[in-house]
Amino acid sequence: MGENAIIRFDQVTKQYDQDEPVLKAVSFEIERGKFYTLLGPSGCGKTTILRLIAGFIEPSQGSIYLNDVKINKVPPNERQVNTVFQDYALFPHLNVYENVAFGLRIKKMKNDVISEKVSEALRLVNLEGYEKRQITEMSGGQRQRVAIARAIVNEPEVLLLDEPLSALDLKLRTEMQYVLRELQQRLGITFIFVTHDQEEALAMSDEIFVMNQGVIQQSGTPNDIYDEPINRFVADFVGESNIVPAVMIEDNLVEFNGRRFECVDQGLRPNENVEIVIRPEDLEITSLEQGKLRVKVDTQLFRGVHYEISCYDESGQEWLVHSTKRAEPGSMIGLQFEPEAIHVMRFGETEEEFDKRLESYEVSGHVT
């Protein structure tokens, strides 16, 4: 276990009856004091990981460690872990104060200690003065803050958050993202956050685990995940992407759209079939003469800060462009991009193989 790791999964599998495993020999470490996000579509296994950490279920195979102690059989109430649920799980017959104080009363703390801890927890989530308010009188965002206060008042080492913002409207979600991120940084508690919203994950996290079909596809910082996706699933799930079949001619040279282009990727086999990713914001609209690609505009949508433009090249390949420039449907335009904008993905590459290949061209001075 790493020096700063607080949680470790070692080849953990979870299977119900004879069904396909929902988690397949997953191994990872969670470092103390960071904000982690488990990101992926419904049914990928992310909530299962949370339930295993919390102790609500046990692994079918493998081992789970908290502070270097195996906790497979340790009951939930004996783990320094608290959970904030999607539906808040508040007690409607208790007011705000009693909801937050509930866990402390179970521990039979003195009333003056409970009062001090509850007041501090409510202050941290900006609910001072709401102690006597009934839960039924509060908005969704306020209820979520109460649920968070109830979780942090117990001073857990790890706070688990199971899609806690999914029931909120867009404005409240954004507000709560700031609240959670600021709270985590202030308290220094390890947060493990579950979501299927990639924008939420990118905005809030120190580290992201992208999951699909019971497997962690890729882990890394938001920049790592967005700029260096390991495979088509990650590239397509995290942000919008242009994913195009290509051939890696040699180091720093890739062929697609019938032409060869400079890139920064290395470590692939000569003439290997690959896929390339270019993010829509990395494509610049220019004249036909200056463009590396010649495309015909199909649709143009205004998204507030940019235009989202769909266009097609001569081969029928669709290209998505995000630009502050307009491009009228039916017109021909050129698309320009830098070598650093091209990210090459190898078919079937593991995360370990990808990391080694990435290191090879970071060491040589090429960092994308």
UniProtKB/TrEMBL annotation:
NCBIfam families: potA. Residues 7-238 form the ABC transporter domain. Gene3D superfamilies: 2.40.50.100, P-loop containing nucleotide triphosphate hydrolases. GO terms for molecular function: ABC-type putrescine transporter activity; ATP binding; ATP hydrolysis activity. This is Spermidine/putrescine import ATP-binding protein PotA. The gene is potA. One of its GO terms (cellular component) is ATP-binding cassette (ABC) transporter complex. SUPFAM superfamilies: MOP-like, P-loop containing nucleoside triphosphate hydrolases. It comes from Paenibacillus yonginensis. InterPro entries: AAA+_ATPase, ABC_SmlMolc_Importer, ABC_transporter-like_ATP-bd, ABC_transporter-like_CS, Mo/tungstate-bd_C_term_dom, P-loop_NTPase, PotA-like, PotA_ATP-bd. Its EC number is 7.6.2.11. Keywords: ATP-binding, Cell membrane, Membrane, Nucleotide-binding, Translocase, Transport. PROSITE patterns: ABC_TRANSPORTER_1, ABC_TRANSPORTER_2. The complex is composed of two ATP-binding proteins (PotA), two transmembrane proteins (PotB and PotC) and a solute-binding protein (PotD). Part of the ABC transporter complex PotABCD involved in spermidine/putrescine import. Responsible for energy coupling to the transport system. SMART domains: AAA (SM00382). It catalyses: ATP + H2O + polyamine-[polyamine-binding protein]Side 1 = ADP + phosphate + polyamineSide 2 + [polyamine-binding protein]Side 1. PANTHER family: SPERMIDINE/PUTRESCINE IMPORT ATP-BINDING PROTEIN POTA (PTHR42781), SPERMIDINE_PUTRESCINE IMPORT ATP-BINDING PROTEIN POTA (PTHR42781:SF4). Belongs to the ABC transporter superfamily. Spermidine/putrescine importer (TC 3.A.1.11.1) family.
